Amino acid sequence: MNRLKGKTAVVTGATSGIGLRSAELFAEQGVNLILTGRREERLKEIKLDFESRFDISVQTAAFDIRNRKACESFVEGISVPVDILLNNAGLAKGTDPVDQADFEDWETMIDTNVKGLLYMTRLLSPQMKERGAGHIINVGSTAGHEAYSGGVVYCGTKHAVKAITEATKKDLHGTNVRVSMVSPGLVETEFSEVRFDGDKQKADAVYEGIDPLTAQDIAEIILFVANRPPHVNIMDTVIYPVAQSSATMVHRDENE
Fold this sequence. Notes:
Layout lengths: L7 E4 L5 H12 L3 E6 L2 H14 L4 E5 L5 H9 L7 E4 L15 H29 L3 E5 L12 H20 L6 E7 L6 H5 L4 H7 L8 H12 L9 E4 L17
Parallel strand pairs: 1-2, 1-4, 2-3, 4-5, 5-6, 6-7
Helix pairs in contact: 1-8, 3-4, 4-5
């Protein structure tokens, strides 16, 4: 059953990976889209593609989610009620231990994964609360459930997303606004290339010998979460590829 047709969704980090695939699945269901990301030309291409294939409207806004003023300007420019906020924008930078890590990498992760998510939630939740309807879906990570060496700040930010999701649900208790999180394990997207500053060899090695999750896999779960009946709120889903059992337990097939 399609419960989403005609609704409007804001998707952050929509130019690639999980954000792009989620936006496309929403579009297939007749959801009007407001897409954000830093790559303006890519957003224009996505808008043309989606509007040519689906009977929906697509608005785009190119800005950095870390910039609070840009977030405020973006939300002020939205003229329709937002039914779904998919806080997807996020990234990891580096795998250095705490005593060697780069401060700028830390700031980038904290400003994107935590503060950017909070800005968008703070700015869009009031209209949802006022209407007594809406759905905030945060893209977390299994790193928000289990910390690992080399991920001190990335894991910290995703633990924060888990706490923010739970506290947001409690803050909006009694309003019928739903709050959810989706927590993927190893997903093969641009994620690892970003983490290793474009080093494709290092990025590819993360997925060697396994059949990792794809952006499509996670987008399908996000769609499922969003499409539940209004009285159903899925707080979190933890998703691993079969080859993964924890952050550090990954079975690799040497023949692949």
